[in-house]
Structure prediction request, 457 residues.
Amino acid sequence: MTQSDIGAPNLGWLGIIRMGLVQTALGSIIVLTTSTINRVMVVELALAAALPGALVAWHYALQFLRPRWGYGADTGGRRTPWIIFGIATLGLGGAAAALAVALMATSYWPGLALAVLAFTLIGIGVGAAGTNLLALLATLVHPDRRAPAATIVWMMMIAGFVVTTITASSFLAPFTLTRLVTVTATVSVIALVVSILALWGVEPARAAAAPATASEPTDAETKTAFRTALAEVWDEPQARRFTIFVFVSMLAYSMQDLILEPFAGFAFGMNPAESTKLAGHQHSGVFLGMALVAICAHPRVGFGSLRAWTVGGCIASAIALLGLVLAGLFAPHWPLTATVIALGFANGAFAVAAIATMMSLAGAGREKREGIRMGLWGAAQAIAFGAGGFVGAASADLIRGLVTEPADAFTVVFAAEAMLFLAAAMLGVRAIVEVKSPEKPVFARPVADVAKAGSAI
Prediction:
């Protein structure tokens, strides 16, 4: 689906909020599978933590299929059916994951087999729905509104995390495996219904198709066409460079996910409650960073371009991580909470600016390739995110065997993460500036001027 298929992008704020509800639905299912079900496997069933870790890693690995899901919508002309398919598949996978955990309590191997199938469905569902939701936003949202739209949608996803965990926790007490299955299945059904209602009528009707002049393509021809389309997108310098930027920046973004709280325990003597509160401070910083970009990048404010916020967020994240290195050197006298809030703030600004940039770049280049581009970048993001957490934790474990103080191992990882963010900033300067209008580079200008280059986006 191209710009010409749907007319000028003019989705209003209510429409953006409705799209955000779909992201909320996605988040509500994901948080139960990656958090609650993870905990039940490790604590209630006393299974090795590596098991849920491997299942989650498998779900991330399946994100390499995202370009295929985007291509399916590109050629089909509509994205709504793919989003609903993704949500339904994700919900089925979430319910199956809960059922698998219940089965593991009595029959381990059948339960494990079902868990692998469940997380396969989860990976497919997240990829199909997430890719096409962002691609639909990219084609329907006016350039002036992309930064605030990205903020709204991502904040609503995080809100889905919060609302689901609070609500589900009340229905899970007293805990039983049967309750876990019931609650997860109920959340999945509600998420699907909410998504269908939220998407109803948002996407314009597909333009009338030209009369068929040949038979439908065979599966082999479709497969070849997809490979050709993917190769065409990868041959675009802009798309290729931005893919590499997304991978490097998201690898840096996620490396501290699993080691920040252990670092706080080793270096500052924080107990679990205190380190959990520290994570809350970090998420508060993320919200503030996202909100700042949404406000400042709006045309009426016009402070900075998406390119500047994306690259600047990478640099700010590197500085904050170097602050964590200093925290390890000067613990317990370093202001750790302020440093973590600063890291969250920089991460939030970078993340929402990068997502808004994805939305803007999706339509640049060859027509009818928006879904493949978004899928390619989404795959790079998801795979890097999954790999980053593992690499960060594994590196800290390895280095701990070589140093005297455990906290020193974490500071080495933080320093490496900072270097990755600086490398990502240099990649971003080149990657994002490539999209051009007939006048001058789109992202070298303030966001307020991007609307004038709508034909290039």
Summary: Confidence is low (pLDDT under 50) at residues 1-7, 207-216, 434-457. Residues 11 and 141 are 5 Å apart (CA to CA). Residues 226-457 form a domain with the Growth Hormone; Chain: A; fold (CATH 1.20.1250.20).
